[in-house]
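Objective 1.3, modelling of assemblies. Example input:
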Amino acid sequence: MDHIYLDHAATAPMDKRVIEAMNPIMTNIFGNPSSVHAFGRKARQYLDEARRTMAGSIQADEKEIVFTSGGTEADNLAMIGTALANRHKGNHIITTHQEHHAALYTAENLEQQGFDVTYLPVDETGRINIADLTEALTPETILVSIMYVNNETGVIQPVEAIGEILKDHQAYFHTDAVQAFGLLDIDVKQSGIDLLTVSSHKINGPKGIGFLYVSHGVKIEALQFGGEQERKRRPGTENVAAAVGFQTAVELSLDNKADRRQTYAHYKEQFMKQLSENGVNYAVNGALDQSIASIVNISFPGANVEALLTNFDLDGIAASSGSACTAGSVEPSHVLAAMYGENDNRTTNSIRFSFGSFNTEENVIEAANRVATIVKRLTQ
Amino acid sequence: MKKNEDTRVVVGMSGGVDSSVAALLLKEQGYDVVGIFMKNWDDTDENGVCTATEDYDDVVRVCNQLDIPYFAVNFEKQYWDKVFTYFLDEYKAGRTPNPDVMCNKEIKFKAFLEHAMSLGADYLATGHYAQVRNNNGQYEMLRGVDDNKDQTYFLNQLTSDVLENVIFPLGHLNKHEVREIAQEHGLVTATKKDSTGVCFIGERNFKEFLSEYLPAQPGVMATLDGVEKGRHDGLMYYTIGQRQGLGIGGSGEPWFVVGKNLKDNILYVGQGFDNDKLYSDGLIASDVNWINPTPGESFTCTAKFRYRQQDNEVTVTKMEDGNVHVEFHERQRAITPGQAVVFYDGDVCLGGGTIDEVIKDENYLDYVG
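Predicted structure (tokens):
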């Protein structure tokens, strides 16, 4: 049985070219980029170049890029770092109920540290209402953190409109762009974004690296202490090989962005078409026309997430839903709960399918057929 | 006959050594083994970490050692509705419930079995110490060969239909052999302590746990002749035959719980382990399950009235309402309403029921509860 991967939003396989770019670094370049000798300088060259690519990918300046261990750390640094550094300006933070846990739990932690946090609702399309944001803003607000593309539903938030509103407000605008990066065109300056999170492994790069864009002038405290790396905002010896792999992944993602958007949109369409043709009863969660090409979140009335996912896996289909608790059992999705209410069946009968480099039209159709067989067996 | 490699067996894995070895043995026999962890209880520790985490983590590590897929399934709602509600109701009624029997009946061999079947399983396996025998299409349940670990007492509500789809890989083994197998294979659970007590209470204080769910009504502790001997903390905290925690001082033989008066909230106590009030010669059981058809309306067999007890000869007579009358050939001490009575013919477990009434000299012992 062929295993088919439909979980690219969780992580994506490394591109061969990424590995090829990393191999010589791991083989030959071992210096510490902070060292003041030839070995260090060589490593630093690669790091600088990688940083330049990151900056260029979002129209930022290279001094505005802070390498981190990944998306979670970047979200933590962005939110806690700015909250602590700007406490004198106010005590209020705005985020939403549909954030990734890396941001949501960070917000909850800030609440415990005494910050007031407003969690904006989302409607059934999965999007926030700009009027809610306007209403929630106070002179005390120092940070607004709203993700670019939701990782469960693929729904794109009105980032430009948020940036526009915050233009004349002291609050910084942070957005977690982990799912958006690589498929959407991102221009931090034009969109009024002050802080932006990107992760490498979602775009076929290596795991363990990401970056936070921190706009010039943003006051931010470091969360860890040690050396002078990343201009003291993120101490610790840099992972040069990973940075180079990340750089290659970014370059590749910029190269054929439009093509991939089209390809994945086609996969999504084919997948749903195949389910329909097989007579599967399903509904798409969130606004399909406002969602990213690579992600679709589908509710199967009468089914249950755990039985679905286990059956899928035993039949070679890798997909996912919400998040698992530490004891392995699947928790109802907080994102779908934010959209439909906590007791809605969609929070416990929905699956996220996400397309990417592993897929072909053939394996997407094959996957849809297997999914259809299982869903029909479980719901009839 | 399907080949083993084409036969899918879902193993209920708790993170303990028994279910780990059950999975290992099936894997060695070449089955298509799938490990599943059941999460039946929602509780978090002081750090907000789910208390089932450690056990699930052990399931993950063992399954990775065995190279079998693993999943978790959540039956919290079913467990609450079918087991915990029953558990509380029984305590409210002054009885001593057996949640393990109910969990096997309603969760492990019903909801979980259905889940396993929905995954295309041919069999469900668990680490219970019991055996299944196909006797011309009637599936019988036999005791595990390890007398000290035999768990058929808790499995008495299973039926032939269910047993047809069940494998107990440990039934022919002694516990020490199971540990040895685990050790030989370097399973991470090889030396893990066996769990004790009621699963959802865990290591916590039982009294404290129960008081979170049921209001305790302290009252009078007295002999059946009406002599007050002190106060009790709430009838639900005591069980028939209990000696500990009564706090009655003085000289002479120790004191025991001999009964409960729910209406007047009195705990009856009596002196001496062999106090006559603790003895009875029969019982009525309800919710009776026969694993296979019985030899007749009245027959002689052996019975256990609690886990790990020696077998006792009894005569079982079916009553019109489906309940059974059980006559003891020798009088029994501390028969406890709410507990299971389980019947055997040699090594074959015939089935069992819930003790409802305790009988002595042809009278129901009202004071027992």
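The CA atoms of residues 314 and 328 of chain B lie 5 Å apart.
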